[in-house]
Amino acid sequence: NAQFAMKRAKQSGRVEVYQPGEVSAARRRFSLETELRRAIDRDELSLAFQPLINLETNSVSGFEALARWIHPDHGPIPPSEFIPVAEESGLIVPLGRWALDATARTLAEWDRRTGRVLPVYAGVNVSAVQLQRDDVAAGVAGALGANGLDGSRLTLELTESAIISDPDRAGRVLTALKMLDARIAMDDFGTGYSNLAYLQKLPIDILKIDRSFVTGMLADRDSIAIVRAVLSLADALGMKTTAEGIETVELARTLAALGCSTGQGYYFAKPLSADDALDYLLARAA
Ligand code: C2E
Ligand code: MG
Ligand code: MG
Ligand code: MG
Fold this sequence. Notes:
The structure is a single chain. By secondary structure, this protein is of the alpha/beta class. It is 44% helix and 23% strand. It is built from twelve helices and twelve strands. It has helices spanning 32-41, 79-89, 92-114, 128-133, 136-147, 160-164, 167-179, 197-201, 211-215, 221-236, 249-257, 274-285; strands at 5-9, 14-18, 28-31, 45-54, 60-71, 75-77, 121-126, 154-158, 183-189, 206-209, 240-243, 262-263. The protein has an eight-stranded mixed barrel with strand order 4-5-7-8-9-10-11-12, surrounded by six helices. A three-stranded antiparallel β-sheet has the order 1-2-3. The chain starts with a strand and ends with a helix. Residues 29-285 form the EAL domain. This is GGDEF-domain containing protein.
């Protein structure tokens, strides 16, 4: 809500809300955690879908599902604020289950509306805490089964931290996910711990090159060197690559020329509502 100015104290997970024109008596505090719990219960979260573009054919390969929270009084609260709170409080488990179910429901709904099995997948983010505390493979199996979807329609996006914290558990979960035919993407690749041994041991299908390297790659030699290195590493290991944060046609062209498989970024599209994402897919296929 525009009349509120929000100041959030990230460390404490609390939000302070000020109403302009009123003094400290009007100052309210609320706990982001309590509000988030309520939002999950009341189904106030939604998903936005950002297109993932095949850089060779320029067609839509899939979409990344991104959680959105529009608080009824306080307006949009970005994932960079509520995901950490969800992780600290354990709410990431129900939130993550909801994201899987809602993504699978949306894919099934698109199939139903178009009368065919659409050749697109959805990427769902899985946090390290969720991987630790929940049976993610069972959650994926449930979401697929309930919606009659093949496992190849889902890609689970994990960060390096999810693997480093418990490599044995991560290995078991990833193996179970592969048995469902789902794919695994390493998200924000290059920003975590640079222990590359796991790339050899785990069934990873896609490396997602972090936006921080993509943004600067045309201006900055170090960034382009890192991007080239990730592309050649992925190629040598038989993995696909997705570049995040493509904001210009130059970046799209350069990454395509370097052999990057897939692109994601504002140049193609911002995260869209489920309806707009389906329209985008159909328009781009036409
Ligand atoms: P991520 O998984 O790396 O997702 C990509 C983020 O980059 C998204 O931010 C997306 O909107 C943004 N982005 C995409 N293209 C561009 C671009 O061209 N320029 C710029 N400046 N940004 C771009 P978003 O939606 O704010 O999400 C932030 C992070 O929150 C995600 O990063 C992910 O780590 C986390 N997140 C979002 N939804 C979920 C969820 O359902 N579960 C979990 N565990 N994490 C989630
Ligand atoms: Mg992601
Ligand atoms: Mg990412
Ligand atoms: Mg990122």
